[in-house]
## 1
Amino acid sequence: MGVRDREEDIKKAIDYITAGWDPKYIITTGGLGITHDDITVEAISKALNLRLRESSEARKFVLEAMQRLKETVTDEDSLKKLYMLPEGFSPLRNPVGVAPGLIGEVVLGGRRRTIIVLPGVPAEAEGIFVTNIAGRIMKRPEGVERVYREIAVRSRESKIHRVLKTLQKEFEGLKVGSYPQTPEVVLIRLSGSKEEVERGFKRLVDLLQEVVGPAGKG
């Protein structure tokens, strides 16, 4: 469901979803930036009666992301909003953008629930979900370990999209994700069973060799 950038609307949405569907997981997207109307974290904090605290881990994630994306930090105080989390919540590294996601367990409606907060940019939300969340909440066969492996490729995404399509077709059980880091660098992430990831990675390197030459390190 969609709600406006108003604290009371966000609180009502959480209450409505909790009462109407009794979910184990509540996932929100959007409102994690540094502008005045990015209020999701503050609204959730107030709705749950939790104080905001500064997270050194979130700060580390933010500064590392800015360095990776070659963004200049001119005023770190303006970034502080990105690493203020409700008590008990943990940051989730953003492999695509800057703003971390966050996750926390709370008691709502008499039972424990997990709240996951993701950025509104689809590629960022997907990147955080795949690398931080999917392995925790998605069921998989007993005894099957789900792993991921990634490689940075110096190429435009448009140049390698056929490689990714071919790989996904050949390995149906493999999750293939691509996340542009700069206009000329794409991070490719494979996730699945350990055996499938290893076989898929070897095939990926071969396919990339044909299109862009020697690939980056994974």
## 2
Amino acid sequence: MKRKRSILIGLIIVLIPTFYYLNQHVIDFSPEIIKQWILSLGILAPIIYIALYSVRPFILFPASVLSLAGGLAFGPFYGTLLTIIGATLGAYFSFLFSRKVGGKWVEKKTRPRIEKVKSLVEKNGFVSILLVRLLPIFPFDLVSYAAGLSNVKTSHFVLATILGIIPGTFAYNFLGASATSNNLLNIVMAILLFLLVMIFPVLFKNKFKNFLDKQETK
């Protein structure tokens, strides 16, 4: 277990400067360009950002990219708020699609993984959804689809999603906002917070799996 943690931390430490180098010298896809494009939309920028995030599960666009862009364009706090709204809407639409329209299609495409998630949220509802949002050992959209197939209450799903995504959402937005910052302390804090959020699920993965196994045997 310790070896796996060391490998993960090492990979993160290597990937961050590698991504920075590629971004600056190869891809030339600077954060400032993304920021200016979003802000060029004027007063519609927040609305369009939320709209993009709400349909993201259906267009298979990486959530991490949008979250970083949100931090760049709107700052760590306003960006976090907009991202939470957009991500929650996207999760709700996925939940609704699975429950009302495409349940059979979703089950066919995501078996057998979705069965385990579905069973978990049916037994514990709010608590299970909150935990899998805080500790994302299952894909975000898979949880939404599985919850839609279960008997969990819509209000429990939405509230647990909002609360569960706050730490990770802020970490991504803070990291994105720091990309154009000249304040070294802000940059260091953003990176440390991001690493903490990324490593936290790994540290508690076994305990969480034990919890899941206990819930399945009930």
## 3
Amino acid sequence: MPGMFLKSATPATPATEEPAETMHLSPDMDGVELLIFTHREGLLSSVAHDLKIRATRFAVEFEDGDPSCIEATFDAASLEVICAMNEGHEDPTALSEKNKAEIQEIIVKRILEAERYPQIRFRTLSITPQDEGHHQLTGILWLHGHERRLEFQTRVEDNRHVSRIRLHQPDYGIRPYSALLGAIRVQPDITVKITIPCDLIKKMPVVPKKEECLP
């Protein structure tokens, strides 16, 4: 019967709870993508370029069936310049491989100071379901040595979960790139776009849940 046991000379061993589980995402999975878009401004902005940048090393984990504790980590040194953007369209011929490598070095070393702040982290505080499969996420973002509350929406588009997040660089102590005494500048606001195929979430490998995410 529940709550009853037999007396024994050997103390009973407490039952061991099964570890909580999370599902794991990474950029090597088909369709999983994190992109960053920057926009230029300034007197000589016409000779500069908007940029499309990709994070090549990151991991996203959340609880199977109940993503109440999403934990995401990003390698700040893993940003890769894909191409220039022209009025919202890719311009693959605008930048040489040398140009892209030089820009990447500036982003990683001077803007993000990745040697000092190697990891970017995000953890949810709450997730609110909305209509048509959309969700409102609230959490904490750790970036460039600063910690701030962040809210954004994830929407379902073409069988993909898509989040577009606007970040104001000075909020995190980041000084936007500037050249020629400010005649060429990167706007303080950048856009982060995260894409996860809906079908992939159901197929993700399950891994032990991190202790710090347990209730």
## 4
Amino acid sequence: MTTETAPRHDRRAATTAQRRAQREQARAAARGGSGRARQLAFAGIVLGVLAIGAFLAFGDFLNRPATASGEINIQSSMAGFTPAVITVKAGSTVTLDWWTQDAAIHLQNGVHTMVAPDLGLNEALPAESSRTVTWTVPNKPGTYDVWCESCCGGKDSPTMHGKIVVQPADSAGEARGAA
């Protein structure tokens, strides 16, 4: 009595194919129904990253107290002035609520400055602080450049610039910061 057996390489190929099929079944079982869960997990991670980014980008504004009526809230940072354009009336007295969260190590002499020589504005703000600046706007309508002279590249810096728009005294509207 003789029984025929498959050659060794055929048996090995069959065993390998069987094991491969078992692994594929296990993978499919692990994935089964989890496609939706993966999408939700991915969406959650993306939303989390965006929320953290938004907090880092705009977190400076979260704990700021409200400014009094008529004050203009101005932030100085290494990225520039916020708002970048301030609109005021000629001859008016304006109160600027000026603040920074930049550390002294990033600032020359530990201060930001706000310089607009044509408007008689030359103020300094120590690192990580705030102050109120009361300024009488000259009676010179026009658009003027304002910059940080102390640490940010001075007048030649492409980022640490802003504009002050001085409207004629009889112009409608109040002094305000524009976005």
